[in-house]
Amino acid sequence: MAQQSPVPDELDRPFWEACNDDRLVLQHCAACAKYRFPPEPRCWACGSDRLPWREVGATGTLYTYAVVHDTPIASLKEDLPYVVGVVEIDDADGVNLVARVRDVPLDAVPVDGRIAITFEPTPGTGQKVPVARSAVPSS
Predict the structure, then answer these.
(1) Residue 96 CB burial class (10 angstroms; 0-12, 13-18, ≥19)
(2) pTM above 0.85, yes or no
(3) Alpha-carbon distance 77 to 93, whole Å?
(4) Which of 17, 49, 106, 109 is 20 to 30 Å apart from 134, CA to CA?
(5) According to the model, what pLDDT value does residue 123 have?
Protein backbone atom coordinates (compact mmCIF):
# COMPACT_ATOMS: atom_id res chain seq x y z
CA MET A 1 0.00 0.00 0.00
CA ALA A 2 1.35 3.40 -0.94
CA GLN A 3 2.06 6.00 1.73
CA GLN A 4 3.06 9.62 1.55
CA SER A 5 6.63 10.23 2.74
CA PRO A 6 6.88 12.71 5.61
CA VAL A 7 9.60 15.35 5.44
CA PRO A 8 11.14 15.71 8.91
CA ASP A 9 11.90 19.18 10.20
CA GLU A 10 14.00 20.34 13.15
CA LEU A 11 11.15 19.87 15.64
CA ASP A 12 9.97 16.37 14.68
CA ARG A 13 13.23 14.86 13.36
CA PRO A 14 13.82 12.76 16.56
CA PHE A 15 10.38 11.16 16.10
CA TRP A 16 11.06 10.18 12.49
CA GLU A 17 14.61 8.98 13.21
CA ALA A 18 13.22 6.70 15.93
CA CYS A 19 10.59 5.38 13.49
CA ASN A 20 13.44 4.41 11.16
CA ASP A 21 14.85 2.38 14.08
CA ASP A 22 11.43 0.75 14.74
CA ARG A 23 10.98 2.69 17.98
CA LEU A 24 8.21 4.99 19.18
CA VAL A 25 9.39 8.15 20.96
CA LEU A 26 7.39 11.08 22.29
CA GLN A 27 8.26 14.39 23.88
CA HIS A 28 8.08 14.18 27.68
CA CYS A 29 7.99 17.37 29.72
CA ALA A 30 10.80 17.48 32.28
CA ALA A 31 8.84 19.99 34.37
CA CYS A 32 5.37 18.42 34.68
CA ALA A 33 5.92 14.88 33.31
CA LYS A 34 3.24 15.14 30.60
CA TYR A 35 3.76 13.47 27.22
CA ARG A 36 3.29 15.54 24.07
CA PHE A 37 2.29 14.55 20.57
CA PRO A 38 2.48 15.97 18.01
CA PRO A 39 5.73 17.69 19.01
CA GLU A 40 5.69 21.34 19.98
CA PRO A 41 8.36 23.76 21.19
CA ARG A 42 6.58 24.21 24.57
CA CYS A 43 4.57 21.96 26.87
CA TRP A 44 0.81 22.41 26.48
CA ALA A 45 0.29 21.83 30.24
CA CYS A 46 2.91 24.03 31.91
CA GLY A 47 4.69 26.02 29.18
CA SER A 48 8.12 24.50 29.78
CA ASP A 49 10.52 24.23 26.87
CA ARG A 50 12.31 21.24 28.46
CA LEU A 51 10.86 18.49 26.27
CA PRO A 52 13.29 15.59 25.87
CA TRP A 53 12.28 12.61 23.77
CA ARG A 54 11.42 9.40 25.62
CA GLU A 55 10.84 5.94 24.18
CA VAL A 56 7.43 4.43 24.96
CA GLY A 57 5.94 1.03 24.31
CA ALA A 58 4.42 0.64 20.87
CA THR A 59 1.06 -0.70 22.05
CA GLY A 60 -2.30 0.85 22.73
CA THR A 61 -6.04 0.71 22.33
CA LEU A 62 -7.91 1.65 19.17
CA TYR A 63 -10.05 4.59 20.26
CA THR A 64 -11.86 5.26 16.98
CA TYR A 65 -11.36 4.97 13.22
CA ALA A 66 -12.54 6.19 9.83
CA VAL A 67 -12.75 4.39 6.53
CA VAL A 68 -11.33 6.49 3.70
CA HIS A 69 -13.31 5.93 0.49
CA ASP A 70 -11.89 8.72 -1.66
CA THR A 71 -8.69 10.73 -1.92
CA PRO A 72 -7.26 13.34 -4.26
CA ILE A 73 -3.79 11.77 -3.83
CA ALA A 74 -3.17 9.60 -6.87
CA SER A 75 -0.72 7.23 -5.14
CA LEU A 76 -3.33 6.36 -2.49
CA LYS A 77 -6.22 5.65 -4.87
CA GLU A 78 -5.15 2.03 -5.42
CA ASP A 79 -5.54 1.38 -1.66
CA LEU A 80 -9.15 2.59 -1.39
CA PRO A 81 -10.93 1.96 0.83
CA TYR A 82 -8.50 1.98 3.76
CA VAL A 83 -8.74 2.52 7.51
CA VAL A 84 -7.18 5.31 9.56
CA GLY A 85 -7.36 4.91 13.33
CA VAL A 86 -6.69 6.84 16.50
CA VAL A 87 -4.60 4.76 18.91
CA GLU A 88 -4.38 5.71 22.57
CA ILE A 89 -0.77 4.84 23.49
CA ASP A 90 -0.50 2.74 26.69
CA ASP A 91 2.63 4.29 28.19
CA ALA A 92 1.85 7.89 27.32
CA ASP A 93 -1.13 8.94 29.46
CA GLY A 94 -3.62 10.39 27.01
CA VAL A 95 -1.46 10.65 23.88
CA ASN A 96 -3.24 9.57 20.73
CA LEU A 97 -1.46 8.60 17.52
CA VAL A 98 -3.20 8.64 14.14
CA ALA A 99 -2.10 5.78 11.90
CA ARG A 100 -3.26 3.56 9.06
CA VAL A 101 -4.78 0.34 10.35
CA ARG A 102 -3.39 -2.65 8.49
CA ASP A 103 -4.40 -6.29 8.05
CA VAL A 104 -7.94 -5.85 9.41
CA PRO A 105 -11.08 -6.32 7.29
CA LEU A 106 -13.20 -3.16 7.03
CA ASP A 107 -16.07 -4.87 8.83
CA ALA A 108 -13.88 -6.11 11.70
CA VAL A 109 -11.94 -3.05 12.86
CA PRO A 110 -11.34 -3.68 16.58
CA VAL A 111 -12.63 -0.54 18.35
CA ASP A 112 -11.41 -0.81 21.96
CA GLY A 113 -9.15 -3.62 20.75
CA ARG A 114 -5.46 -3.96 21.47
CA ILE A 115 -3.18 -2.43 18.86
CA ALA A 116 0.50 -2.88 18.11
CA ILE A 117 2.35 -0.06 16.39
CA THR A 118 4.81 -1.23 13.76
CA PHE A 119 6.78 0.77 11.21
CA GLU A 120 6.74 0.62 7.40
CA PRO A 121 8.93 2.43 4.88
CA THR A 122 7.29 4.82 2.46
CA PRO A 123 8.07 4.43 -1.24
CA GLY A 124 9.05 8.05 -1.86
CA THR A 125 11.97 8.41 0.55
CA GLY A 126 12.07 5.18 2.56
CA GLN A 127 11.13 7.10 5.70
CA LYS A 128 9.34 4.70 8.02
CA VAL A 129 5.92 5.66 9.38
CA PRO A 130 3.90 4.17 12.24
CA VAL A 131 1.08 1.79 11.31
CA ALA A 132 -1.47 0.09 13.57
CA ARG A 133 -2.09 -3.63 13.61
CA SER A 134 -4.56 -5.61 15.66
CA ALA A 135 -2.57 -7.19 18.49
CA VAL A 136 -4.89 -9.01 20.87
CA PRO A 137 -8.69 -9.30 20.68
CA SER A 138 -10.50 -7.22 23.28
CA SER A 139 -12.03 -9.24 26.12
Answers:
(1) middle
(2) yes
(3) 35
(4) 17
(5) 87
